[in-house]
Amino acid sequence: MRKDGATLGIDVGTSAVKVVAVGGDGRVLARASRPYPMTSPAPGFVEQDPEDWWRGTLAAIREIVAAIGAERIAGIGLSGQLNGVVLLDGDNRVLRPAIIWLDTRGAAQATELAARHGALLRERAATDLTGIAVLAKLAWLAKAEPEHLAATRRILLVKDYILHRLTGAIATDPSDASATGMMDARTHAWIGELADAAGFDAGLLPPIAPSLAVAGHLGAEAAAATGLPSGLPVAPGGGDVAALAVGCGVVEPGVLGVTLGTAGHVVLAEDGLPRSGMEPGFWLLPHADPARSIWLGLVMSGGLSLAWLHRTLSLNGRLPLAFEAMTALADDVPAGARGVTFLPFLEGSATPVPRAGARGAFHGLASSHGAGEMVQAVMEGVAFNVKDCTRLFERLGGHIAEVRVAEGGARVDAWCAIIADVLERPVTRIEELDASSVGAALMAQVAIGAGSLDAVVRRTVATSRRFDPRPERIAASRAAYERYRRLADAELSRAADA
């Protein structure tokens, strides 16, 4: 197998699968994506059909193959949304729709497990359990749908379902496994006591394999469906957080990555554990480089907040309001949005405090305000939640020397500038914004022997525009953040009491 060939990076995201081909020289050669729906059968329930992921993946790969030729592809790496769970029966058929990360139906089970096993969760799993975690979802399934768990012979995570369809292999990686809430952070083994407490057999979980190794090879059926040659090596890669860390170049301590996809991820690479221990709203995940860890803060509704506002203002597309035209409405709005504050809790809060019942809100609206102030307030509200994450990292002993932004919302210049103003730090935009899919492709390059992780990142990850804090907006941004914090604290308190 050519070590200098291109690799495919497949990112099974929340709203679409994205596939990129990255050459051995670090250039992105081609890209393709396919959207798919999610359903909400009840409040707090969010599901997807794994077959939609697979159909989208096949179509996107075929588009890449048509663009650059199958002979140029030397390997495949995977990335995917964290904390989605797929149940397979004895014939490897999907038993029910996948419960994805946005689903919070397991909140009560998370609270119960944390009360009974809090020390085990903190000391071995290095987590404060929330309803987002797969462990809580499986506990809910054990109680509400025992017939499905009884018929289950394999439990897979999102990207690992695609790995299985591509290769027949059953495996996950440490970052995906860690996010579930039941992997031992030191040994990278499943914690059987937690599975027992949740009501299922830990033997149903996939083996945990290194991110930067080959987990399987492309099978004949998948090769025929994609147009790729059978036998291609496939690396398990990482959950989207680990992949985006690689795609943003967050491989050295001090580099902070901020992504504005459906969710907002704030990631920092560190060599060690937090000095002051774990705190709510903070997640510790394995890095693709086993010598490092990822510190994670989560904005549940990052890019989703601005997409929601666009959908609302355009009456679900019935009005001809382009996304770029909407963001331009804020061009003449000062920092602080003339007193309007937005809480970006459309899907609950994660950092600084996990609250599944927290809700978004506009505060301070008057008849003198318009859509421009609302757009500005939404971008600021997400930026303020990002600042919550950086303050938490620094309190835990993290060091931030550089800030990089990527993913969908980073295409909005005004939003990048607001983040720089709010963080009071220069922010650089990653040239290749699809960080998770690129990160997956780079992990595949390491797996097939094309170089060390540091080397493949250096030749691929480049920054484009730099946004410096605007001195004339700093004071107003600080005042708006303090207003935001008072309102957010009140909402988080209300959600805790509800």
UniProtKB/TrEMBL annotation:
UniProt domain Carbohydrate kinase FGGY N-terminal: residue ranges: 7-247
E.C. number(s) listed in UniProt: 2.7.1.17
Keywords associated with the record: Kinase, Transferase
Domain Carbohydrate kinase FGGY C-terminal, residue spans: 297-447
Family membership noted in the UniProt record: Belongs to the FGGY kinase family.
Single annotated GO MF: D-xylulokinase activity
One Pfam family hit: FGGY_C
Protein name, entry field: Xylulokinase
Gene3D superfamilies: 3.30.420.40
Stored PANTHER family: SUGAR KINASE (PTHR43095), XYLULOSE KINASE (PTHR43095:SF5)
